Amino acid sequence: GHDNYNALLPTIRKTAEQKGIDAKVLALVIAVESDGKSTMRFKAGEKAYMRKYTMPALKQDGRYHLNKQLRALYQTHLDNQWVRNEAEFAQLLSSGIGVAQIQGLGAFETGYRGNLNDLMTPEVGIPAAAEYLKKRCGKYLGNPVDASVRYNGGLPGHRERAQEWLRLIEKK
What is the mean pLDDT of residues 48-60? Predict the structure, then answer.
C-alpha cells in the first residue's frame, strides 16, 4: 500500500504549497483516510455525517429544501449512476470520495462546484481536501495528528492510526 501512497506525494506537495498548508498535514489526512492506497475511490454515505451535517443542510420539516447552489449541483448529478432522486443526492453528499475521503457536502461548503465524481481523481480531490483543511481545521494545522482527527470528525481509533502514519511520513 505504501508504494501507492508514494505516487500521491508530488500532488500532495504541490497542492500544499499552492494552498499554503504544511504538506505533512495534508499527507497525513490522505494516508489515514485512504489507508495509503492511491486507488481509494468511494465510500458510500456515512450515516453519522449524514445525520449531523447533510440532513440539517438539506431537510426542513421532513422535506428536502435545496438552496439555489445545491439545486444546481443536484441537477448536474441527476441520472448518473448514483443519483436518481434527492435522497440519493443526500447520500452522495455524505459519502467519502477519493483518496482524501472528502464528503461531497464538505467539498461544496468550501467552494467546490464541479461534479462530485471528479473528486475521485487525486488532482481534484486533494486540492478540495486541502481547502477543507484550511477552512474547517485551520486552528489545528500546527499539529498534524490533531488536524487529521478534526478532519475525520474524531472517530474512535483515528488518533492512533494518525500517529502510526505520521511516524511513516516523517521518515520520508
Answer: 81
